Every structure is written in C-alpha cells, then in structure tokens.
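Exercise: predict the fold of this chain.
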Amino acid sequence: MRKYLFCLRQRYASSLLIWNFLGRLPAGMGSLAIVLFLRAHDVAYGRLGAITALYAACSAVGAPVLARLIDKRGQKVPLPVAALISGLGFALLAGFGVRHTPIVLLGVGLAGFFMPPLEPALRSVWPSVLPDESTVEVAYALDSALQNILFVSGPVLVVLLYGAVDPATAVLVIGGIAVVGTLAFVALPPVRSWRGAERVPDWAGALRSRTLVVLLVTMVFLGSLVGVLNVATVAYAEMLGRDGLAGLQLAAFSVGSLVGGLAYGARQWTGDPLRRLLVISLIMAVATWPLVLVPGPNLQLVLMGIAGLGLAPVLTCCFVLVGRVVPTGTVTEAFAWITAVFLGGSACGSALVGAVLPHTGLTTAFALGAAGSTAAFLTTLFLALRRPADNMPARAMAVEGADSP
C-alpha cells in the first residue's frame, strides 16, 4: 500500500483520479440507461438493439478521433466541448422521447461519439504529474483496478437512479455527470497545461507503431472474453433459475481483476513489460479454461474470481508498452485505441456467443471466452518472438507533458 499512498500524495494525483472517475461514470452507465429509457417507452427489442448498437459504435469511433484532437490541441478545450455536446445528445433523447426517430438517432449518436475520452486523457497526464516511470506504472495499475469498480458500480447506479426518478430525468442526470466531472477534471492545472509533443503529420497517427497494432489485436481477443462472459453468465443464471446470479458472477470477475490490479501495482517491477505481459496473459488464459466445467454456483463464483485476476495487470502492462512505443505526439490517441478495440472485442464476443448459445450449450459458450483469452496470449507471444522495430522514439511517456511544446 505504500506505493499507492506515495502515488496519491503527489500534488494533484488524488484530484485527478476523483474527478476523472466521476466524469467516466457515464461511460459505464450510458448503454444500460438508454436500454431502460427505451423500454420504458415500449420500444421493441429489435429497434432497441439497433439504437444501442449505434451508441456503442459511435463511442468506439469517437474516442480515437477526439483523442487525436487532444494530442494536437491539448485537453482544456476539446474535453469540455465534447462533454457539452455529449450532454446535449442525452438531453435530446430525454426531451423528445422516442416519438421522432431521427432525433433519437441524433441524440444517441452525439451522446456516444462525443463522450469525452477521459480514460486516455488521464493516462496521458500522469507522466507530467508523477516523479518517475515506476510511479506512473503504479498509477496505471490503480486506474485499471478502478475501472473494474466502474464496470460494477455503473449498472448498479443506473438501476438506483431509475428507481428514484423518471426515465427522462435519469438520462439527463447521466449526461450532467459527464459534464460536471469533465469540467472539474479540466479545471486542474496539470490538465490545462498538458500539451502533446510535436508529431509528424501522418494520417495513421498512433497506428504507425506496429507494436501498437499487435497490442490492439490482443485487446480485441481480451475484450471478446469479457463480452462472452457478459452473456454466458446470464444463461448460466437462467439455467439455475437464479436471475441475480449473473450479476454476482460478473462482480466476482471484476473483484478478481481489482485484486490482481492492486497486487500488481504494489510490487516494484523491473525489466521488460512485454515479458510480464506474456507471463500474465498465459496465466489468465490457463485460468479461464476451468469455466467450461460449468460447476455449481459457489465454485463457479470462485472460478470467475480467479479468471479475472489477470485482467487489470494485463491492461497495465499494455499501457506501459503503449507509452514506450507509439510515435511522439500520439499517446492519447493510442490509449483511446486500446479502449475502443477492447470494447469492440467485447461487443463481438457478446454477439458471437449470443448466436451460438441457442444451438450448443454453456460449455461451448465458456469455451469461446477461454479461446479469446488464449488467442490474446498467442498474439502476445507473437509480439514477443517477432517484436517489430517501430523506428520511432520510444519515449512518448517521458516527452509528453506540461512542459512539452
């Protein structure tokens, strides 16, 4: 815990985490909030699914676009403008309901595309706030662990909010949280002064790094594991006639990831982070296969917790690698790509297992998730064996910060 306390005692570190986490809450609440809002207006599941998919797609596309703008212009203008436009999208949805389909689509599209990329923005700021790279890695581990709290708390907060107010007000509140959290985050001096380093004009941006491209493939497979579990746990709970069990299983997975992330950050690591990524991804791949046994609920909860232990450490290793290998001036965009492809992989995993499950069974469903984590390890192994020379400065973390031009 001393390493975490040292990190949080650095000037502005706690404030950065608190306000960034508040601003990121709607990212974990938006999809479910839109689903519940549409169902409250008796929207059919087919139309509901299409609208929710639009929100997810716009979020995935918007994050790297906005992050590239942040790398070019800094954070103090793009982030609040994006938050206000996203809030406007939620307001359109709440104000007009579902009577006018074009307005619904416009509102959902704006809310998703302009959801401020606070997660990559924070990771870009850390090197300018913290004293050394080892402390930055602790911050990444803490951030990855807190992301699991967001995954668990977001849906719970949506349900509580919908129980307290009407659906339209709930949607407005969620949009407002994004605006308030973003404005408070941007008001902090390290955020206002942050500038991306000079970059070479290039349409590919961060994707010029071949190492990053391979890491993105790893993230797609890792995201597919999470997407498969989101659906397979519901089917498992329905099989046993215990609806609440699905949430408990996912909570166990998230708690495992939280514990793994905190344990990873508490240790002083040396050497190549790619080697650590390879070892941890192997352990995670092995840990997911026992889920195919589909045991009783108590043992299943234990297995879910064990399977989740490696998620946050794997993400932390990826963040460290990204900061070292991407082209100068593209670090925020690179972090946004990590998030976007992870969510895209999750969506693909959910869609795949949803299509397969009616024709097979739970063993096959959980096997698909384990196959995703195994593919993530194999991709990492490929990177370790044939690590490309990116032919670019591997010091993105060090050069981008408050004193950058």
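Check your answer against the key: DSSP finds 17 helices and no strands in the chain.
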